Amino acid sequence: MIDGQMERIICAIVKAESNVLYFCGAGKDRTGVVSAILLKQLGFSDSVIIEDYMKTKDNLLDFLKAFAAEHPEVNIHTILPREENIKKVLAALSQIEEKAQSVFTGEADI
User: Fold this and answer.
1) How far apart (Å, rounded) are the C-alpha atoms in residues 67 and 25?
2) Is the distance from CB of 67 to CB of 79 less than 8 angstroms?
């Protein structure tokens, strides 16, 4: 989920000269990751980011249940936001930050 497209999205938001509105159909996948990256860069703790992400589940639960009911081929558990998913994103962000920091401190093996 953290790829070149994600980098372009974050850069567009950060470099915007005015307010930015970003969204998607459910707000849990790419939008959730964008929000997590922005919150992380603003210094918010992982627990706050996880709490924010999981609000999506509460906010969209009825919508997602209705969607799954109309589309029996969709597994509701696949489309529900899950805490372990955002934790994986945060772990990946931490690894990226550690590698970047080691480059700046001269500790990186490059």
Assistant:
1) 11
2) yes
Instruction: Give the integer Cα–Cα distance in Å for 68 and 60.
Output: 12
Three-state secondary structure readout of 48-98:
HHHHHHHHHHHHHHHHHHHHHHHCCCCCHHHHCCCHHHHHHHHHHHHHHHH
Q: What is the DSSP letter of 28?
A: S
Residue type, 29: D
Tokens of 63: 């919508």
> Position 52: which residue type?
D
Residue pair 34/86 in contact (Cβ under 8 Å)? The answer is: no
Note the Cα 110 to chain centre separation in Å.
29
| Phi, psi for residue 107 in degrees, rounded to 5 | -90, -5
The pLDDT tens digits for 73-104 are: 999 888 888 999 999 999 988 888 776 565 55
Q: What is the pTM of this model?
A: 0.76
